[in-house]
Amino acid sequence: MKKILTLLAGLTAIAMVACKPEGGKNASSDSISVAPESFTAVPYTGETYTVTVKASGNYTATPNVTWITVDGTTITVAESDVYEARNGEVVFTCGTATAKVTISQEAAPKPVEYTPLTSGPANCYIIDEAGNYSFDGTVIGNGDEGNLSSFGIASTKIAPTGVKLVWEEAEGLITNLKLQDGKVCFTTAQKDGNAVIAVVDNDKNVLWSWHIWSAEAPNDVKCNDDFTLMDRNLGATLTTGTESNGLYYQWGRKDPFSAIIAFDSGLGEGHYHPVVGGGDDKTNTTIHSMAYAIAHPAEYITDTDPAEREQNWCAEVNHLHWGIDFEADGELRKFPEHKTIFDPCPDGYCVASASCFWFGWNTEGGYTVNAGVVTLFGGKITVPAAGFIYTGGYGWYDADGAGWGGLWACSSSWDATKHGFRLSSKPGDPNSHNGTAAAHPVRCMKI
After folding, report:
1. What are the residue boundaries of the structural domains of the chain, listed by start?
2. DSSP letters of 118-145?
3. What is the pTM of this model?
4. Average pLDDT, whole number, for the chain?
């Protein structure tokens, strides 16, 4: 049987083939046969088949449905546009004799319906159950509201032509990834973990990227009249154990680094947790700008100046990258005036402020440290001893193995122009700072 792929549709066709009767037989000797007599599991995309007809005279071929056409001995099944299997037949007739070919075509797949993630726009979306989702891939960050003039970004609108998976912590966490009418569409499995998805241009250059946080939705903890914090670090899948560490961010950048930092006796160091599908722990020590960071979301950037090494990742420090410039404000502002396009938190949240931490450790019974684990607001908030990344591939703990816990704040530091403010588990010194090239966990606060 000769099988030729095609996608033809048309009206019912009647094929006439001249076949000279043998020896002048009359109607009573009419005969016709066709082979094969059936085609099953015809793909929904349609297909063309050739049959063999043996007849005692002229014959006709008549389909009983419009989606089957016949031209001589060629039967064409058109592409299906219905979401259930369908059946048809072609009747071959020669005088009083008939033969039949039956056809069964598979159902067309139903279009995938994507649930819009309407909680954005933001640089992070929380997915707490498996399903098909989409979000607007033509708006960066949280849009115009977060695009401050000092950032030098002319527009928050982009025109991507493709999409890619940068990395994922669990294989198969993100599947069916595509760009459709400007929407980033994807499927998430019932798995805990994190991923980064990016949109690209025709040359595969990354235009922007987003963090997908797949876990049970975090709870809000009302700390006092001013501050409500998430019950876990950004990207954490649980509130206890190493799964509570969350992800690690260089100050001012929106894209996370995945790491599980385990104690390494005598060194106080641990290695990146490997991620599936990318994120190969690249360290860049030559180029450091926000534009470069946007285009290379999986790259850890450090300073090249030996005197400044690992202090800063950005050639031109902008103290408003995460919203609060302490040097300009001269005070501990409770909330940033603007949640910026570089803030890594989900919609409705921003990176916690230095003011939040100050109230957290100064409230009644507020601040405690035990083996690097910090509690704030009288034990309402627990910050794990998650360490931090200070080069492209290592985390750091106190040399005695007690652990180090802390968080970035959205505030810059007043002590050093290239530093950000951080909460520290160092006894007696929660008011701390570090070079922006260090990567610390983040805790999001409600705004």
Report:
1. 3-105, 115-214
2. TT-SSSEEEE-S-EEEEEETTB-TTGGG
3. 0.80
4. 85
